[in-house]
C-alpha cells in the first residue's frame, strides 16, 4: 500500500524550524532547543524528535478517583455530569453513583508520521462492513482494553497490531490525551504515537475488522475546509457533530463523530492552536442511574 501525500504544511515547518533557534525563555517555559537530546535513540527527522519532546510535556487533566475528597453537596449538584457525545472530551466531574455507572474502557492510537515533504499525517482505517457496531465507519486503530493490558498505551498498540499489522516496536508513544466518551458511553483514551520510520511499516489489514487503511493530514482537522456539522441535543443541551470529507486514491471517506472529535483535539495539542471553526462542546448531564444499553442519540 502507498501512503497518500498532501501539500507541505508551512505553518508546522515554520514553527518547528523556529523551535530550533535559541530564544529567550518565557515564564514557566523553556526553549525547545534545550529539549533536544542529540543522543536520543528516537529515530526520524529532527522535526519529529522536537515534536516528540513537545508532546511529552503535555499533561492531560487528572481524572478523579474514589479516594478524592469531594464535598457531598458539590457531588449532588453535579448530578453525575459528564461530557458525552460522539466525540467530546470527558468531564473531570465524577459520576454521582459510580456503582450504577460502569463505563467500559477502550484506547485508540493516533499514529503520526511525516511524509516526504514534512507534513504530519495520521493513520486511519475503514471498519469492515461485517462488524456488528460502527460497520463501514472511519476509525482510529484501537479497541477495548483486555484484562492483561498494563495500560492504555498497551491497549492501543496491541489493537493496532491486530487490526493493521503495526508492530508496537515501531511506534514511539509520546503522550496520552484525556478520555472521550463514545455514544455508547464507553471511555475511549487517545494515545498519541509517532512512526519515525514509515518505510518499516507494511499495512496488513485484518479482514475481520478492517476493510481499508489510509492516512490523512492531521492539520486538516483544524481547518474549516471540507467540513460540515450537525446540531444535536442531549438532555436539553445542544452540541455539534463534525463531519470531514476526505478523498484518498480516488476513494471518498467521511471522518466524523468520535473519531473527528479526537482528531480535532489531537491536532489542537500538536499544533498548539484551536480549530478555525466553532466546536460547540457544552457540558452534558446524564442521569444518576444509567440503564444498561443507554446510548447517545
From TrEMBL:
Presence of keyword Magnesium: yes
GO molecular function, one term: metal ion binding
Pfam families xrefs: NUDIX (PF00293)
Positions of the Nudix hydrolase domain: 103-259
InterPro entries linked: CoAse, NUDIX_hydrolase-like_dom_sf, NUDIX_hydrolase_dom
Keyword vocabulary terms for this entry: Hydrolase, Magnesium, Manganese, Metal-binding
One of the GO biological process terms: coenzyme A biosynthetic process
Region of interest (Disordered), ranges: 59-81, 134-156
GO cellular component: cytoplasm
Needed cofactors: Mn(2+); Mg(2+)
SUPFAM superfamilies linked to this entry: Nudix (SSF55811)
Top-level division of the source organism's lineage: Eukaryota
Species in which this protein is naturally found: Papaver somniferum (Opium poppy)
Protein's recorded name: Nudix hydrolase domain-containing protein
Amino acid at each position: 500500500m502507498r501512503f497518500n501525500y498532501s501539500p507541505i504544511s508551512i505553518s508546522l515547518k515554520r514553527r518547528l524550524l523556529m523551535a530550533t533557534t535559541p530564544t529567550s525563555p518565557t515564564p514557566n517555559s523553556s526553549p525547545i532547543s534545550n529539549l533536544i537530546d542529540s543522543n536520543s535513540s528516537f529515530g526520524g527527522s529532527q522535526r519529529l524528535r522536537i515534536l516528540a519532546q513537545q508532546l511529552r510535556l503535555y499533561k492531560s487533566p487528572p481524572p478523579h478517583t474514589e479516594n478524592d475528597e469531594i464535598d457531598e453537596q458539590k457531588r449532588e449538584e453535579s448530578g453525575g455530569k459528564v461530557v458525552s457525545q460522539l466525540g467530546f472530551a470527558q468531564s473531570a466531574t465524577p459520576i454521582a453513583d459510580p456503582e450504577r455507572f460502569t463505563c467500559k474502557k477502550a484506547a485508540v492510537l493516533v499514529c503520526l508520521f511525516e511524509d516526504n515533504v514534512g507534513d504530519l499525517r495520521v493513520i486511519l482505517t475503514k471498519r469492515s462492513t461485517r462488524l456488528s457496531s460502527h460497520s463501514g465507519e472511519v476509525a482510529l486503530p484501537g479497541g477495548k482494553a483486555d484484562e492483561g493490558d498494563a495500560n492504555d498505551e498497551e491497549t492501543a498498540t496491541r489493537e493496532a497490531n491486530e487490526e493493521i499489522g503495526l508492530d508496537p516496536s515501531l511506534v514511539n508513544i509520546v503522550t496520552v490525551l484525556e478520555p472521550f466518551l463514545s455514544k455508547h458511553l464507553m471511555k475511549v483514551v487517545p494515545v498519541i504515537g509517532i512512526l519515525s520510520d514509515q518505510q518499516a511499516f507494511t499495512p496488513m489489514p485484518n479482514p475481520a475488522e478492517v476493510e481499508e487503511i489510509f492516512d490523512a493530514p492531521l492539520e486538516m482537522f483544524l481547518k474549516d475546509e471540507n467540513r460540515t456539522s450537525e446540531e444535536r441535543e442531549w438532555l436539553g443541551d445542544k452540541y455539534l457533530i463534525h463531519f470531514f470529507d476526505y478523498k484518498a486514491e480516488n476513494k471518498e471517506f467521511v471522518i466524523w463523530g468520535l473519531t473527528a472529535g479526537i482528531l480535532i483535539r489531537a491536532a489542537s495539542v500538536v499544533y498548539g492552536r484551536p480549530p478555525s471553526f466553532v466546536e460547540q462542546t457544552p457540558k452534558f448531564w446524564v442521569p444518576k442511574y444509567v440503564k444498561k444499553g443507554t446510548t447517545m442519540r
